[in-house]
Amino acid sequence: MLAETYQDPGSDGEWLTEDDVLSSAREDTLVNGYPVQVTFYLSAGDDGEWKTMDDTIVYAAIETDPSSPSLARRIVTSRDMGPDKLWGTADDSVDSITTWELDDSGRIQKKRFYYAGGETVTEELASLLMYVKFEYTDGRLGRRLQFASPGQDGQWMTDDDEPSHIQEYIFSGGTLTYARVLTSPVSSPANIIRYTFEGTALASIVYYSNAGEDAEWLTEDDVPGLATDYYRRSDGTLLREHTTYGNLIIDETFQYDELSRLTLVARASGAGADGLWGTDDDPLGRVFRYNYSCDTTMSIPDLNYEPKPY
Description:
This protein has 310 residues and is mainly beta. It has strands at residues 2-8, 21-31, 34-43, 56-65, 68-80, 93-102, 108-119, 127-137, 140-147, 165-172, 175-183, 191-198, 201-210, 223-232, 238-245, 248-256, 262-268, 284-291. It has an 18-stranded antiparallel beta barrel. A hairpin with a 5-residue loop joins β14 (223-232) and β15 (238-245). The protein is globular.
C-alpha cells in the first residue's frame, strides 16, 4: 500500500494531475493483509528525487500478535539503515521502540514508549519515556492513564507511579457522552470532551478548555476549544470531517474505491466564493492519495494502535 501527500498543484495549477508536488509518502509492506514494514519518506533529499539513497526516511518494523494480526505487539523505528545499507536488518540504528501488552481476550492493557537514541538496542537497554495503561469497565474502555515518570522509588510500573494525564469516559444508557481529562496533580478536570452520536456513528467531538465564569464543568458557559464534526453516508462511511480551533479550520472530504478502501483525502484551503465549507467551490490546499497493490480490504492503518471508547 502506498500513501502520498501532495502540497502543491504544480506548474499547471490543477490538482490531481501528474505534476502535483509530492511532499511525503508512506509505503506499507503487508503479510496476510496486515502491515509488517512501513517506510515513511519525509523528504526527497538533495537530489530532489524520491526513492533514492539520500531521501530522509523513517523505517518501522512491526511485530503483530499471532492471534490478533490487526494489533501490533512491537514497533521499532529507525532513521539510519546502518553499514549494510539495507532497512530491516540487525545493524539498523534504532530511534524508538513501542510495545503493547494484551490480555487473554486481545484487549490492549499497556503501551510503552522507549527512546533508543540511534543505537542498535532492544527495549531492555533503551530508556522508557512513558507508558499508558488502559482500564475497562463492563467490557468498555473506562480510563486511559498516562505515566511520564517512575515515581519516588525510581522504578517504572510500580505502585507509586503517578499518572500525568487521565481520561475518564462517562457513559449514559450505554452511549459515551463525555470524558473528564485530569492532569497531575489530579484534582478537578483540566478539560472536558463531549461526544455526540447519530445512531452508533460518532457525529462530533468537542474539547472544552475552560469551565467558564461559573467555574463549573458541563454547564452552558463552558469554553470550547477544538471541535470536529463528522459527516457520513447512510451506511456510516465517513464522507467529510470539519475541524475548528480558534481561527484554524481543517475541512477534509474522503473518497473510496469499490472495496470501501480510502483512496483520496482532499483538504480545502478555504470556503470558496459561496462562503460555505464542504461545497464544490472550495479550493484545495493539500491532497492525500492512497494506492493498493493487493486485494486487502483494509485501508491504510493507523499505527497508533489504541483502544477507543466508542
